Amino acid sequence: MGFLIDIRYALRLLAKAPKFTMLVTFILTAGLTISLLTFNMVYTISFKPLQGKDASSIVTPHLTGSTRVLTFEDVTQLGQSQFSAVYDEYTLHYREEVRMENQGQGVSLLGEKVMPNFFSFTRTEPLLGRAFNNNDGAAGQAPVVALSYHVWQTLFAGRESVLGEHVRLGGKSYEVVAVMPEGYKFPVTSDLWLPLDTKQFAQFDLKDKQVSVLGRLHASVSEAQANSELASALTAVRERRLSQSDRVQFIAPTVTHMSLQQQNIEGMGAFIFVGLQSFALAILFMACINTGNLLFSRSIERQKETAIRGALGAKTKRLVRQLVCEGGLITLLGGALAIVLTAVLLSVINGTLQASLGSGMPFWWNWHLDWQTLTMAVLFILFTFFFASVLPAVKAAKMDINTVLRDGTRGSLGRGAGRLSRIIVTIQVAIIAVLMLSGSLGSSVIFNITDMVTAEKTEGRYSAYFNLVGAEFESPEQKVNFVETAVQDLSKLSSVSKADMMQNMGLKNVRMDAESRVRVDVMGTLGKLAFFDQTLVAGRGIDARDNSENLRVVLVSESFAKRHFNGQSALGKQLDIELSDKYVTHTVVGIVSDRSGNTQGMYAPLAEYDELYVSYLQSPYEWVQLIFEQQAGMQSAQQDFYTWLGRSDYQAYFSFIVDLEKNANLYADMLGIMSNGVIYSGVFSLFLALMGVYGVSAASVSMRSHEIGIRRALGAKDTAITILFLKRNMGPLLIGLGVGLVVYVLSCMVFASMIGSKIGLSTYIAIALITSTLLTSMLLLSGYVPTRRAVQDEPVAALRAE
C-alpha cells in the first residue's frame, strides 16, 4: 500500500512540473537511443549470428602472412585429407563477375563459382528448381546457373517459368535450374551461382586462381589447433614449390579462422565494437549524471519535507523509496520511448541503406529491433535507473538533518552540498572533454578519408579487372602482350578518351636494410603515370627497356623519398620488395609526384602517401587492372567495353568492372553518414554537459543567495561577485579538462602507434587547443548566466531567500 502511495505522489510531482518531466525524459531517451542504435548497428555488422540452420558454425580461414589468399594450387596440394582433418565438412567458392544479356541489355552481376555441395553445406534448399549435383559443371555437361531471389524478381519479373530457360552469361548460354530463397546471398552478396567441377582444380587455368574456403570445425578440434595445423600444412606445400635459394627468403603464412562477418571487416569487429560502444556509453553515463543531478536538485527543493519526515521517525529505506519512485517513473518512460524510437530509426536506416546499396550489401546487414537489442535495452535501463535514480535518492535521504536544514532555510550552501556540486561538475567536464576531443579526432580522420576519396579524379572512369591464368598466359611475355594490346584497343574506342593499366599488388613488405622494414603500396605499371595526374620529379621513368632481361627497377613516390632517405637522394638506392613470398632487389631510378589517393593512405594527409612502382614487364602478375576514361558528353564507354570484350578472345579471363565515380560517391556518402553521426553525437554531448553544468551552477548560486545578498549589502560590486563565482567553477573545470586531455594524449599515442605519422603532431595539437578553448568558453558561459541573474536581484530579496 505504501508503495502505491509513493507512486501516486511521484506522479503528482511530475505532473506539476511538465517542463522538468519532458526535459529529463528527453535526456534519458536520447542517451538510451544512441546507445541502443550503436549496439544494434555494430553488433549486426560484426557479431550477430547468421540466420539459418547451423549457419553460426561456419568459419573461413583468414590468411595474415605475406600471401593473403589461397589458390586452387594450394587447395589441390593440401588435399582433401588435410581439410577433412580440420573440418567436419567444407566447401570451396570464388567470386566471378558475369555479364548477363537480358532483353538486349547487358547487366553486370556478382557470380559465385561453387562446389556442388555449396547449397547443402549452407543448409538451404532452392525456392524453385533443384540444387547442383556432381555432374553440373563437368566437362561435356550443359552449363547451368542458380539465380538469387533479387535477380529473379528484377530481371525475370518473378516468373516461375524461368526454370529451364537459357540466359547468356559472358557470351555463353546457361540453363536456369534453380531460384534461391529471398535473402539468400551466400557467402556475402552473390547474385547467382555457377557450379564448379572439383576435377578441374589441378588444371592450369584454375591453379593460380584465388579461392575461399568455408568450413565447420570438428568438435574435437579447437580453433587454435585448426589455425596451427592449416598454417603448417600450407607452409609446407608452398615451400615445396620454391627453389632452394628462394626458400631462404620465404615468409610463412599464418591462419586465423573467422566468421563471415569478421572476415568481411578484416577481423576488426571487436575493435570497432569497443570503440563505438564506449563512446555511446559515455554519452549515456553523462545523461545519467545530468538526470541524477536534476532529480537530486528536486530532492533538495523538498529537503525540509525530507528532514521533517526523518525527524518524525521515517526510516531511511522509506525516504529512499519515495525519492526513487520519481526517478524510476522517468527512467521507465525514457526507456520505453527509447525502444520505440530505436525501432523506428533502425527501420529508416535499414531502408535507406537497402535503397542505396541494394544487393551489394552483405546479406546479414539487416537492422531491426531484435532480442539482443531488447536485452541490452533492459541492461541499459537498469544501469540508468541505478545511476540516475537510486544513487541520488540514497544521497539525498542520508543527508544529516541539521546540515540539510541549515543549507535550506536561509539560502546558504553547506560544505557537503558544495563538495557534491563540484564533484558532479568535474565528472561531467571530464566526460565531455574526452568525448569532444575523441570525436574531433575521429571527425578529422573521416574528413581526411573523404578528402582522399574526392581528390582523385574518378568522373567517367572505369576499372576492369582481368585474371590472366591459363595456357594462353603461361609465360610473362604473353601477359605483357595482352596488356599492351588491350590498352591500345581500348584507346581506339570512340567513347574512350584514354586508357592505361595498373597492377595493384597491395601492401608489401619493403626492406631498405637488414633492420628497417616498412609496408608500402606496390603498383605495376607500363610507365604511363600521367593518367593519374602524376609527374616525374627526378630521375627517369619506367619504359620498354625495363624488361625481364635487365636490372629490376622501381619508382618511388615523393613522400616515400622524403620520409625514408633522411634528405639524401633516393636515386640509385636499392630496395628489397616482397614479391611472391620472397624479397627481390630493385634499384630506384626515379621519383614521381604523390597520387591523390591510394589504398594505404586511408588516414594519411595527401602529402604523406607512399607508393612504389615496379615495371609490369619485370613483374607481370596474373591480376591486371585496365583503366579507361569516358569521352566528355558520352555515356556508352562501359557498353563499348563489353562489346570489345565480346569480340576479343579474353572474355574468359575477365573478372569484373568498377564504375570508379559511382564507387567514390557511394564511399563518400557512407563517410558523410559516419561524420554526421559523430558530429550530432558530439553536439548532443555538449548540450548535456552545458545543461548539467548550468543546472549545478544554478542550484549552487540559488543556495548561495543569502551569501550574495550579504555581499551586495556590504557594497560588493556585481562584477566582483560574478568573477568570484566563476573562479569557484574554474577548479572543477580545470580538473575535468585536465583529465580529458590526459586521456586524449594517451588515445593519440595509441592511435599514432597504429597509423604511424600519417596524422601530424600539429593536427593533434590543433584539435586539443580548439576543442579545449571551445569547451572552456561554453562551460564558463553556462556558469556565468545563472550568476548574472542572481546578482540582478535586490539584496533584500536575496537575504530573505528560502
UniProtKB/TrEMBL annotation:
Domain MacB-like periplasmic core, chain residue ranges per copy: 32-231, 430-613
Localization per Swiss-Prot or TrEMBL: Cell membrane
Membrane-spanning segments: 20-43, 268-296, 327-349, 369-391, 423-447, 678-702, 733-755, 761-781
Domain of life: Bacteria
Residues covered by the ABC3 transporter permease C-terminal domain: 279-400, 682-794
Chief place where the protein resides: membrane
GO MF annotations in UniProt: transmembrane transporter activity
Pfam families per UniProt: FtsX, MacB_PCD
UniProt topology in membrane: Multi-pass membrane protein
GO cellular component labels: plasma membrane
Keywords of this entry: Cell membrane, Membrane, Transmembrane, Transmembrane helix
UniProt family annotation: Belongs to the ABC-4 integral membrane protein family.
Name of this chain's protein: Permease
